[in-house]
Amino acid sequence: GALFDGHDLAEQAIKSGISLLFVEEYLPKFEVPQIIVRNSRKALAKLAQLYYNDPTSKFFLIGVTGTNGKTSIVTSIESILQKNGFKVGSIGTLGYRINNVQFNTDRTTPDITELNEIFSEMVNQEVQYVVMEVSSHSLKLDRVYGLHFDVGIFTNLSRDHLDFHADMEDYYLSKKILFTTIAKKNGIALINTDDSYGKRLYDEIAMRKIAVSGLIEQSKFADVRYEVVNSTLIESVIRLSFKETLQRYK
User: Fold this and answer.
1) Is the dihedral of CA 18, 23, 28, 33 positive or negative?
2) Which residues make Cβ contacts (< 8 Å) with residue 184, sequence separation at least 6?
3) CA distance readout (Å), 108 to 99, 105, 199, 239
4) What does the alpha-carbon distance between residue 18 and residue 183 come to, in Å, rounded to a whole number?
5) Could you give the CA distance from residue 114 to residue 45 in angstroms, rounded to a whole number?
6) How many Å apart are CA 179 and CA 201, to the nearest integer?
7) pLDDT tens per residue across span 108-163
8) pLDDT tens track for 29-79
9) Which residues contact 180 (CB under 8 A, 6 or more apart)?
């Protein structure tokens, strides 16, 4: 943990019935078997992945990260997919949903063990697409380590969570982890390049990527340009323009 050493809880864990410990350093005072790992959080992630039979390899996973807009984007994508006849799951600030059935969670991005359990149930419910909010906390603390993301979406970055992150640079680098993961899987990044950190991310990552912009002066550089035609409390009308190069991503 960030505030204390989890090894200090080993005795309490053993007294509660735990018979095997994954540790980052050997604890000689205890007789239970111990497996030494470099990173216990990542080890837990791989164990959960194995225990639940690697559920995220069985559907299309979309991760949405950024300071603002994550919930709106997740809800919108979920709605679009459902209206096109797909079975969809979603996870975020509002909890998680499986084929339109709502469940509650304590955090925007649940713990990796709970995540794999949720994903496993989604597989059982024959979900084809899952769209989820990915917080900077979950990225920095390896709570999404080992998940098979197919698409990553970056919204923006503004001053927030600096009680957890040392500074804005640490906040940005934590968000960037998602796209480093996706790049290794040959996935696609959709990035709001109107945001200064989004522009930096677009320039820094070497992977299949799509620049999204709402600025007229950026339209010749963007792969996708959006224009808000009309917006009321009832509905929003948005016009999308696509570059021809976008065809190669289909």
Assistant:
1) positive
2) none
3) 19, 8, 25, 30
4) 38
5) 10
6) 9
7) 788 899 999 999 999 999 999 999 999 888 888 888 999 999 999 999 998 765 66
8) 999 999 999 999 999 999 999 999 999 999 999 999 998 999 999 999 999
9) 205
CA distance 18 to 7: 13
Phi-psi region at 232: left, alpha or beta (left = phi > 0; alpha = psi -120 to 50): beta
Residue the block writes with tokens 């604890």 = 27
In this structure, which amino acid lies at residue 232? Answer: T
- Token pair, residue 183, equals 């790049």
CA angle 210, 214, 218 (to 5 degrees): 75
Q: Tokens representing 129? A: 């697409």
Q: Which two tokens stand for residue 30?
A: 């205890």
Q: In what order do the strands lie in the sheet with 236-242?
A: 101-103, 95-98, 88-92, 129-133, 60-65, 151-154, 188-192, 208-213, 224-231, 236-242
Q: Determine the 3-state secondary structure of 211 from DSSP.
A: strand
Q: Which two three-digit tokens encode residue 19? A: 């018979």
Residue 216 pLDDT more than 80? no
Q: Parallel, antiparallel, or unpaired: how do β-strands 95-98 and 88-92 relate? A: antiparallel
